[in-house]
C-alpha cells in the first residue's frame, strides 16, 4: 500500500510503498464476505503477516500538519499544547509552523497569529499550499486556470492505462500533452473534458477516469464559490502558461528540484549529453528522478529546474507530476526559501 509520510528534517513529503498492517489486512479480507460467502487470498506468508504492526501509524503522526495547525491557530488554540489523541512529534509541529510562516499565513512561529492572508486561507477546504496558489492567482491573472488545475490535483489520477491497451492509451494521451510538463497537461485534459458533450463516452475513448474528472468539477465549483465570497477576480491568462506556473510556484515553492551535474544535464543549463535519465536534487536535499509517467521523462535537454507535486519512494525516488520552471523564478516568488536552499 502507498503511505504518505513527511520527513521533518528535509521537509520532503513522500508517497512510500509499505506492507499493510494486520488491521488493514483483516479489513480487506472482510470485504470478501460482505454480501455473500467468499474467500480472501494473501500473497504473503503467515509469518510475514504476524511480523507486521497491528495498526497503521496514525496520519497525524506521519503527515504534514499545516492544515491542522492553521485551523488550531484560527480558533486561537495553542498548536503546541492542544490535547490530540495521538500527539505528533514536536519537530513536525515546528516544521509546519515554519511553512505557514513562509506561506505568509502566520506572523511568527512563536505565539503565532493569523495574518490577513492566513485568515483568507482558512476559508478554503484544501491544503494551505493550494489555497495560497488560489489567493495569489489574481496577481498573475490566472484564477480561471488555477481553479481548474487545483481541482484536478485534488482528485485521484485522471489517466487510465490498461495493460492490454497501453500503447493505444499512450498514443491518445499525446493530444493533451504540453511541452511545459504535467500540470499544463492536466489542465488541457480538464478543459477538454468540460467541453465534451457525452462525457462518459469521451472518457472511455480517451482512456480517462470519468469519476475522478467529475469529482474535480465538483471541487472546482466549491472553490469558485469561496473565491467569489472573497471577491477574487476570476481572470484568465489565456495561453501565457508561464503566469500559471509562477502562480503554482507561489504555493508549492518547497517542491522545487534542480538538475544535477553529470546526470543528463548540468544544474546550470541542464544541457549535458548524458545518455542516462536526468537526476534532480530537491530544495530539501533529496535526490530523485522524473517519474517515467511524466511527459518530461526523457526530454532532451532535460529542464534545468522543475516543480513537482509529490515525491514517490518505491525502489527509487521519483518526482511525480512535474513541470519545467525557470531557476530564477524561485528567487522572485519565494526569496526567503530560495536563500535557505542556497545556505544548505
UniProtKB/TrEMBL annotation:
<keyword id="KW-0547">Nucleotide-binding</keyword>
<dbReference type="GO" id="GO:0005730">
    <property type="term" value="C:nucleolus"/>
</dbReference>
<dbReference type="InterPro" id="IPR027417">
    <property type="entry name" value="P-loop_NTPase"/>
</dbReference>
<dbReference type="InterPro" id="IPR048333">
    <property type="entry name" value="HA2_WH"/>
</dbReference>
<dbReference type="Pfam" id="PF21010">
    <property type="entry name" value="HA2_C"/>
</dbReference>
<dbReference type="InterPro" id="IPR011709">
    <property type="entry name" value="DEAD-box_helicase_OB_fold"/>
</dbReference>
<dbReference type="Pfam" id="PF04408">
    <property type="entry name" value="WHD_HA2"/>
</dbReference>
<dbReference type="GO" id="GO:0005524">
    <property type="term" value="F:ATP binding"/>
</dbReference>
<dbReference type="GO" id="GO:0003724">
    <property type="term" value="F:RNA helicase activity"/>
</dbReference>
<dbReference type="GO" id="GO:0003725">
    <property type="term" value="F:double-stranded RNA binding"/>
</dbReference>
<dbReference type="InterPro" id="IPR007502">
    <property type="entry name" value="Helicase-assoc_dom"/>
</dbReference>
<keyword id="KW-0347">Helicase</keyword>
<dbReference type="Pfam" id="PF07717">
    <property type="entry name" value="OB_NTP_bind"/>
</dbReference>
<protein>
    <recommendedName>
        <fullName>RNA helicase</fullName>
        <ecNumber>3.6.4.13</ecNumber>
    </recommendedName>
</protein>
<dbReference type="GO" id="GO:0045943">
    <property type="term" value="P:positive regulation of transcription by RNA polymerase I"/>
</dbReference>
<dbReference type="GO" id="GO:0016787">
    <property type="term" value="F:hydrolase activity"/>
</dbReference>
<keyword id="KW-0067">ATP-binding</keyword>
<feature type="domain" description="Helicase-associated">
    <location>
        <begin position="95"/>
        <end position="187"/>
    </location>
</feature>
<keyword id="KW-0378">Hydrolase</keyword>
